[in-house]
Amino acid sequence: MIESYLAIPPLLGVLGLLVALGIFLVMNSFPEGDEKVKKIGDQIHLGAMTFMKTEYTYLSLFALVVIILVYLSLGQDTALAVLAGALSSSIAGWIGMYSATKANVRTATAASQSGAESALSVAFYGGSIMGLCVASLGLIGLGSLYYILSGDAHSIEGFAMGASIVALFSRVGGGIYTKSADVGADLVGKIEAGIPEDDPRNPGVIADNVGDNVGDIAGMGSDIFESYCGSMVACIAIASTYAITSDFAQADKEGMMFLPLALASIGLIASIIGIVIVRLFSKSSPANAMRWGTMGAPLIFIIAAYYLTNFLVESNPLPGSDGLDVWLAVVCGSVGGIAIGLITEYYTGSSPVIKIAEAGQTGPATVMITGLSVGMQSVVLPIACIILIIFISTQLTGLYGVGIAAVGMLSTVGITMAIDAYGPVADNAGGIAEMAGMPSETRVITDELDEQGNTTAAIGKGFAIGAAALAALAIISAFVETVSANRAEPLELILSNPTVLIGIFIGGAIPFLIASITMTAVGDAAFEMINEIRRQFKEIPGLLEGNAEPDTEKCVDIATSAALKKMLLPGIIAVSAPPLVGLGIGAEALGGLLAGGLLVCVLMALFMANAGGAWDNAKKYIEKGNLGGKGTDTHSAAVVGDTVGDPFKDTSGPSMNILINVMAIVSLVIAPLL
Length: 674
Prior knowledge:
Blueprint: H1 8-28, H2 35-74, H3 76-113, H4 116-148, H5 153-192, H6 205-240, H7 250-280, H8 286-312, H9 323-349, H10 351-359, H11 364-377, H12 380-397, H13 399-410, H14 413-435, H15 440-485, H16 498-539, H17 552-566, H18 568-584, H19 587-623, H20 633-670
Helix pairs in contact: 1-4, 1-7, 2-3, 2-5, 2-6, 2-17, 3-4, 3-5, 3-6, 3-14, 3-15, 4-6, 4-7, 4-14, 5-6, 5-16, 5-17, 5-18, 5-20, 6-7, 6-13, 6-14, 6-15, 6-17, 6-20, 7-8, 7-13, 7-14, 8-9, 9-12, 9-13, 9-15, 9-19, 10-11, 10-19, 11-19, 11-20, 12-13, 12-15, 13-15, ...
């Protein structure tokens, strides 16, 4: 029965790409604006695409080495899957980046000529293309492989590995780029020169706007893509280890292996409907439109998933469970993802933010202390949600439940990513409006869109962390099951085993090492950027007075060079650690490494993302006119907090999500060698 449905996921993926193309054509029909606005937009677009081209050149060389090693050790099919995963993720990032950098200038022009409703539509169109490409290319790539390889679970695992490699480089490289430019432009422009954010006199402003795209569009997209595909691969791998018994038929096994792809397929349809819902409600406030779309798509998905799970899982997949239990695990993940996002919204957009802003009245030190405490506290409730998801889903359907809960959380990634990617487009639109000298009314509209974008970005980061945690746990479960299936005795991760403890400590230390490398990279690049901006203000006559043009290309080159040089080492560590530990010490040590890495990565990711987001919004709260507004000592203190928070939330924090997934999927792929 299942064979007749195998072509549906890739075909729906093609449909999703066609819808994305239609949205792009509609978005592209909006005017770019006058020559001045178009010139600024072209500079941002060219800078972003040049960075992507150079980054993908480096990435291709690294991926080629990995593919050759996989081919020599694990065979042709797995190597093909790695290539397919890397290509799918790269194409999604490229299309999303291209579309976003075409949408930003049109959003600014729409805000100036047509008002808030039109500007919201254009910005959301730009984000929707990224969201649909992530979901569609995941289904096309993974669905096609599943069809071609006839459900060969082990070979298919390579797809998630290829996606994870691209995600690590895109997130780390993009994060270093965006934050080195942002920190440099803010410290010299706002604090030293006393000029507004996105002021055209600032040499770092173009690099800053380019960075918003390479970090929060391409980087975030690849982050979500690898969790999206990783969760499906984990379910396929776990289901493939189930033995056929008198109570568990071949049809049940095939149904449970195909179920994650089927769920993702209806999730794509629900996401398209969610995008339509946002468009229909755009006449109201941006917040209401986003909320209806965010809540509407998962609700549609949950209803459709009920009928799908009962159709594919016909008898008892596990002792004491049935199709209803599988559906409840899906619901658990979907609802849990929304809960984590709402908790993140509270800590990065509510009373904790005001508390940080008020702490600025006594200087930068208290801003730092309060922000750190908010970040630490914000870890507790999301972890409680993850614990509940794990407990409920495993009680319902065993280890498979964790994977299918992650699929439930990520199936509506089309709308989730669309709303997240909308933020950087709106942010860029505000920057373009400032640089082009558009009327203050335009900035009011773009600032409102940007404010909502900050909230959606924070929710997106919380969602991404929760999804990465569940996906990684599912992949680790699949790793244990796969190793056990290939050994005389099952793999047992017992704390009294010193080999397991050694692995736990190694796994716990690696996230701190990666965080240190990425924070240092941002600091070093920002140092160079600050010196360059200071030099131009000092040496270019009339620049501060607005009578000369800054050398923006030099700042773009500094950020690009730093990102490309510094992204290699984290990638090498993440990919090489599992085989070194697994082949050098043993499978038990590798299992411990994954356990220690998962725990520390999730805790650090939540802490860094939420602290950084809270510092950022505290600064924006003051810039609205609260507590004295811009130019005060309180504002300067908040800018310092935001400067520290930037690499927290956009470089080191997001790299934690991908780090654990990379280590987990590499471990799963090499499991037969252990």
